[in-house]
Every structure is written in C-alpha cells, then in structure tokens.
UniProtKB/TrEMBL annotation:
Keywords: Amino-acid biosynthesis, FAD, Flavoprotein, Methionine biosynthesis, NAD, Oxidoreductase. Its cofactor is FAD. It catalyses: (6S)-5-methyl-5,6,7,8-tetrahydrofolate + NAD(+) = (6R)-5,10-methylene-5,6,7,8-tetrahydrofolate + NADH + H(+). GO terms for molecular function: FAD binding; methylenetetrahydrofolate reductase (NADH) activity. One of its GO terms (cellular component) is cytosol. The keyword Amino-acid biosynthesis applies. This is Methylenetetrahydrofolate reductase. It is an enzyme of class 1 (oxidoreductase). Pathway: Amino-acid biosynthesis; L-methionine biosynthesis via de novo pathway; One-carbon metabolism; tetrahydrofolate interconversion. GO terms for biological process: methionine biosynthetic process; tetrahydrofolate interconversion.
Length: 290
C-alpha cells in the first residue's frame, strides 16, 4: 500500500514512528508499544535510522518484521549518512522483495560527537540527491521526506529552506512529514507558504506528546522547535511531577490534533519514542470525538 493513497483530508490517517532499540529492555518496550498501538489500526508506522546510519540494518529488519508479523504498512527511514549510492541498490531490492512500498528519504542527523553533516566519499549530500537516485533506479516506491515549519536548524532563512524543499519534492517525493511543533500557527503558515511556492504534495503534521521535561528541552534545543510561552510556564510548574507532566503533554497534543483535524490535515504522524500510553490516549480521545 502506497502511503500517498492513505493521505486524505476526508479520512485522515494516524501513523506512529518507532526507533530500533539498542538493548534487550528497549526491545521489550518497543514490542509492548507496538502491540498497544497496533490495536489502534494505524494507517502506517515508520522506523527511524540512527544518526550516521548507525542502525541501518536494524531499521530494515524491524520494518520487515513489523510488516510480516502485524500486516501493518511499515515505512523505512533511509539516510544519506547511512547509504552510499553503490550500497543503496541492495537495500532497495531487499525492501522491494519484502513488498515494502514506502521510504522516508532523509539526509540524516550528524553522527554523535559531530556538529555538521559530512557526506560519505561519493555519497549523497542532500536528501534531494538520494530521492533523485531512488527515482532513477525506478523501483516504484512511494517516497516521503522531511520538512520544517519553523525552518531547518541549519538554514540561513526559511525562504531558502522552502526553496530547497521545493527542489526535493520535485526530485520525486510523494508527501512530506513535518518536524515536531507545539504551536499549530507554524504549521498553517508553513502550508500556506509551501502551496504558494508550488509544493503540492500532502504535508503531514508530526506531533510529539510531551512526557518528560528534560527530554523535551533536549529535543527542542536540537531541532529548534518553539515551546509557546504559556506551555513553557505550565511545564516548568509540573516538571517534578511525572504524572501531571504526562497529563499536560497529552492534553496539549490532543488540543493541537483536534484543531489540525478540523482544518483538514491529511493525517497525523506521532513521534512515539517507543512508548504507547500518551499516543494511545490522544488517538482514543480523537476517535471518540469524531
Ligand atoms: P535535507 O532536505 O537534505 O536538508 C538539510 C539542510 O540542507 C536544510 O537546511 C536544507 O535547507 C539544506 N539544503 C537542502 N538542499 C540544499 C542545497 N541544494 N544547497 C544548499 N542547502 C541545501 N534523522 C535521522 O538521522 N534518522 C531518521 O530516521 C530521521 N527521521 C526523521 C523524520 C522526520 C519526519 C523528520 C522531520 C526528521 C527526521 N530526521 C531523522 C532528522 C533529519 O535527518 C535532520 O533534520 C537532518 O538535519 C535534515 O534532514 P533532511 O532530510 O531534511 O535534509
């Protein structure tokens, strides 16, 4: 099933993102989260690839396993840092043989300890280059990419970033998924600017339920997402009360999602961090209201 055919404002789909665990405990957490969230019948799930391609074989294995064991459509994240052109073909063949139809094409974060992304010798510098390569290989994949309502952290200007996104979409993307954001105004403004720039593919909002104060501070520092002042004050007030923090995170994300759905988004992608309770509560609340 090609994800582009599931992205429909009149029947928006929920999707869940997971990462390949590194430990046995992490594996147990993932399996529990997968089981809980599979019960919500997501439109698709996706599996990230660690910075610098550090989990590349695990990513593909996990995608194949989810697809085979649950029947849920699973999308592999493939990064420029993890795949040189000469190695990528074998990965594409493996995915195609397993009937995986969807790939999220990314440049990838710099590996741990590095502040800037360095392409591999002979490798792809930008996600647009990898997108073009996959299209030219002609495997008939449905391809997604990343986009940034508040601008990518490295970009000198949002206009530059949008121009590069247009080139990336023109290289062959079928849809894009946004970086997390906590203020829907950034998303709506971004979609308007993207449409004006001639970017016409579905733009799926990415939502991360806040469950942990330090973690969210770290993520927002890394990806540059703004925490609105009122939410920041509320988080500060409950930072030492894990239950209250989780409730606040669920409440904020639910309100965000309700507004996004009421304004016709084609789907919502949840960054689950391999945990199910918050995402399950949000999706259940949204379904109960529809
Ligand atoms: P690109 O689209 O290549 O853009 C990177 C930067 O280069 C941007 O600033 C862009 O404006 C600029 N740029 C693009 N083209 C040009 C050009 N021709 N000339 C000059 N500048 C240019 N990271 C991982 O490591 N693994 C994952 O699994 C992963 N999953 C993600 C999923 C989603 C939905 C999102 C939103 C992000 C994800 N990331 C992941 C993070 C992502 O890899 C980083 O944000 C990375 O820094 C940029 O990746 P990109 O694909 O957007 O890059």
């Amino acid at each position: 099933m090609k994800i582009r055919n599931r992205l429909n404002p009149s029947d928006p789909c929920f999707s869940f993102e997971f990462f390949p665990p590194r430990t046995e405990e992490g594996e147990a957490n993932l399996l529990k989260a997968l089981e809980d969230l599979a019960a919500l019948q997501p439109g698709f799930v996706s599996v990230t690839e660690g910075a610098g391609g550090s989990t590349r074989s695990k990513t593909v294995e996990l995608v194949l396993r989810i697809k085979q064991e649950t029947g849920i459509e699973a999308m592999a994240h493939l990064t420029c840092g993890g795949h040189r052109p000469d190695e990528l073909r074998a990965v594409l063949e493996k995915l195609k043989d397993a009937k995986v139809d969807n790939i999220l094409v990314l440049r990838g974060d710099p590996p741990k300890g590095q502040t800037h992304f360095e392409p591999q010798p002979g490798g792809f510098r930008y996600a647009s280059e990898m997108t073009r390569f996959i299209r030219e290989e002609d495997f008939n994949f449905c391809l997604g990419g990343a986009c940034y309502p508040e601008g990518h952290v490295e970009t000198p200007s949002r206009d530059d970033d949008l121009r590069h996104l247009k080139a990336k979409v023109d290289a062959g993307l079928d849809f894009v998924v946004t970086q997390l954001f906590f203020d829907n105004a950034f998303y709506f403004d971004f979609v308007e600017r993207a449409r004006r720039a001639g970017i016409n593919v579905p733009i799926v909002p990415g939502i991360m339920p806040i469950t942990n104060y330090e973690q969210i501070q770290r993520f927002t520092r890394l990806c540059g997402a703004t925490v609105p002042m009122r939410l920041a004050l509320q988080l500060e007030r409950v930072k030492d009360q894990p239950e209250a923090m989780a409730q606040l995170g669920v409440a904020h994300a639910t309100v965000q999602c309700m507004e996004l759905l009421s304004r016709g988004v084609p789907g919502i992608h949840f960054y689950t961090l391999n945990k199910s309770p918050a995402t399950r509560m949000i999706v259940s609340a949204l379904r109960a209201r529809s």
